[in-house]
User: What shape does this take?
Amino acid sequence: MILDHLTALYNRSALDEVLEHLSEDDIGLVCAMLDIDHFKEVNDTLGHAAGDDYLKKFANLLRNTCDQHLVFRYGGDEFCILFNGITLEEATTLCRRIYRDSARILDPKKIGGRVAAASYGLSVFETDISPDELIRRADQAMYAMKKRLR
Assistant: This one.
Protein backbone atom coordinates (compact mmCIF):
# COMPACT_ATOMS: atom_id res chain seq x y z
CA MET A 1 0.00 0.00 0.00
CA ILE A 2 1.05 3.53 -0.67
CA LEU A 3 1.56 6.10 2.08
CA ASP A 4 0.74 9.79 2.04
CA HIS A 5 4.02 11.73 2.15
CA LEU A 6 2.87 14.30 4.74
CA THR A 7 0.88 12.24 7.24
CA ALA A 8 2.40 8.77 6.70
CA LEU A 9 -1.16 7.39 6.60
CA TYR A 10 -2.32 5.26 3.70
CA ASN A 11 -3.25 7.44 0.72
CA ARG A 12 -6.28 7.57 -1.58
CA SER A 13 -4.80 5.03 -4.00
CA ALA A 14 -4.43 2.56 -1.14
CA LEU A 15 -8.06 3.18 -0.15
CA ASP A 16 -9.21 2.57 -3.73
CA GLU A 17 -7.26 -0.68 -3.76
CA VAL A 18 -8.83 -1.89 -0.50
CA LEU A 19 -12.33 -0.90 -1.65
CA GLU A 20 -11.83 -2.71 -4.95
CA HIS A 21 -11.38 -5.97 -3.03
CA LEU A 22 -14.37 -5.73 -0.67
CA SER A 23 -16.36 -8.95 -0.62
CA GLU A 24 -19.12 -10.75 1.27
CA ASP A 25 -16.57 -11.30 4.05
CA ASP A 26 -16.54 -7.54 4.64
CA ILE A 27 -20.28 -7.17 5.26
CA GLY A 28 -20.69 -4.98 8.34
CA LEU A 29 -17.46 -3.05 7.77
CA VAL A 30 -17.98 0.55 8.92
CA CYS A 31 -16.62 3.41 6.83
CA ALA A 32 -16.00 6.82 8.37
CA MET A 33 -15.31 9.95 6.36
CA LEU A 34 -13.81 12.83 8.31
CA ASP A 35 -13.18 16.45 7.34
CA ILE A 36 -11.47 19.09 9.47
CA ASP A 37 -13.85 21.99 10.08
CA HIS A 38 -12.45 25.45 9.31
CA PHE A 39 -9.16 24.06 8.02
CA LYS A 40 -8.96 26.82 5.42
CA GLU A 41 -8.79 29.35 8.28
CA VAL A 42 -5.81 27.47 9.74
CA ASN A 43 -3.90 27.84 6.47
CA ASP A 44 -5.12 31.39 5.78
CA THR A 45 -4.46 32.70 9.30
CA LEU A 46 -1.43 30.75 10.47
CA GLY A 47 0.13 29.68 7.17
CA HIS A 48 0.53 26.41 5.32
CA ALA A 49 3.33 25.19 7.60
CA ALA A 50 0.90 25.41 10.54
CA GLY A 51 -1.72 23.64 8.45
CA ASP A 52 0.74 20.86 7.67
CA ASP A 53 1.61 20.61 11.36
CA TYR A 54 -2.08 20.30 12.23
CA LEU A 55 -2.51 17.53 9.63
CA LYS A 56 0.46 15.62 11.08
CA LYS A 57 -0.92 15.93 14.62
CA PHE A 58 -4.36 14.88 13.42
CA ALA A 59 -2.86 11.87 11.62
CA ASN A 60 -1.15 10.85 14.88
CA LEU A 61 -4.47 11.19 16.70
CA LEU A 62 -6.12 8.92 14.12
CA ARG A 63 -3.28 6.41 14.31
CA ASN A 64 -3.43 6.28 18.11
CA THR A 65 -7.23 6.12 18.32
CA CYS A 66 -7.72 3.64 15.48
CA ASP A 67 -4.62 1.48 15.70
CA GLN A 68 -6.54 -1.70 14.84
CA HIS A 69 -8.17 -0.21 11.73
CA LEU A 70 -7.18 1.11 8.31
CA VAL A 71 -6.75 4.89 8.20
CA PHE A 72 -6.35 6.86 4.96
CA ARG A 73 -5.76 10.45 3.94
CA TYR A 74 -8.49 10.88 1.35
CA GLY A 75 -7.16 14.23 0.16
CA GLY A 76 -6.49 17.67 1.57
CA ASP A 77 -8.11 17.74 5.01
CA GLU A 78 -10.35 14.73 4.39
CA PHE A 79 -9.68 11.31 5.88
CA CYS A 80 -11.27 7.88 5.77
CA ILE A 81 -11.25 5.08 8.32
CA LEU A 82 -12.35 1.52 7.59
CA PHE A 83 -13.44 -0.08 10.86
CA ASN A 84 -13.52 -3.86 10.64
CA GLY A 85 -14.76 -6.15 13.39
CA ILE A 86 -16.60 -3.51 15.41
CA THR A 87 -20.20 -2.33 15.46
CA LEU A 88 -21.55 0.95 14.16
CA GLU A 89 -22.02 2.07 17.77
CA GLU A 90 -18.37 1.32 18.60
CA ALA A 91 -17.21 3.17 15.48
CA THR A 92 -19.42 6.11 16.49
CA THR A 93 -17.79 6.19 19.93
CA LEU A 94 -14.32 6.28 18.37
CA CYS A 95 -15.35 9.06 15.97
CA ARG A 96 -16.80 11.10 18.83
CA ARG A 97 -13.46 10.75 20.64
CA ILE A 98 -11.64 11.87 17.48
CA TYR A 99 -13.95 14.89 17.18
CA ARG A 100 -13.38 15.87 20.81
CA ASP A 101 -9.62 15.33 20.74
CA SER A 102 -9.13 17.01 17.35
CA ALA A 103 -10.73 20.17 18.76
CA ARG A 104 -7.87 20.31 21.28
CA ILE A 105 -5.03 20.28 18.74
CA LEU A 106 -5.27 24.00 18.00
CA ASP A 107 -6.38 26.88 20.20
CA PRO A 108 -9.50 28.33 18.49
CA LYS A 109 -8.40 31.88 19.38
CA LYS A 110 -5.60 31.50 16.87
CA ILE A 111 -8.10 31.23 14.00
CA GLY A 112 -10.76 33.73 14.98
CA GLY A 113 -12.53 31.63 17.59
CA ARG A 114 -13.39 28.79 15.24
CA VAL A 115 -12.81 25.21 16.34
CA ALA A 116 -10.76 23.05 13.97
CA ALA A 117 -12.36 19.68 14.79
CA ALA A 118 -13.04 16.73 12.52
CA SER A 119 -16.68 16.29 11.55
CA TYR A 120 -17.48 12.73 10.56
CA GLY A 121 -20.05 10.56 8.85
CA LEU A 122 -20.47 6.81 8.94
CA SER A 123 -21.85 4.14 6.64
CA VAL A 124 -21.99 0.35 6.80
CA PHE A 125 -20.98 -1.96 3.97
CA GLU A 126 -23.87 -4.15 2.85
CA THR A 127 -24.25 -6.65 0.03
CA ASP A 128 -26.32 -4.33 -2.15
CA ILE A 129 -24.04 -1.27 -2.18
CA SER A 130 -20.89 -0.57 -4.13
CA PRO A 131 -17.68 0.73 -2.57
CA ASP A 132 -18.40 4.12 -4.19
CA GLU A 133 -21.83 4.15 -2.53
CA LEU A 134 -20.24 3.25 0.83
CA ILE A 135 -18.01 6.34 0.56
CA ARG A 136 -20.84 8.52 -0.77
CA ARG A 137 -23.13 7.65 2.16
CA ALA A 138 -20.40 8.33 4.73
CA ASP A 139 -19.59 11.60 2.96
CA GLN A 140 -23.26 12.66 3.00
CA ALA A 141 -23.52 11.86 6.71
CA MET A 142 -20.37 13.91 7.35
CA TYR A 143 -21.77 16.95 5.53
CA ALA A 144 -25.04 16.56 7.43
CA MET A 145 -23.03 16.78 10.68
CA LYS A 146 -21.20 19.88 9.44
CA LYS A 147 -24.55 21.49 8.63
CA ARG A 148 -25.91 20.73 12.10
CA LEU A 149 -22.82 22.24 13.75
CA ARG A 150 -23.03 25.60 11.95
Remarks:
- Strands lie at 30-36, 70-75, 78-83, 118-124.
- The radius of gyration is 15 Å.
- DSSP finds five helices and four strands in the chain.
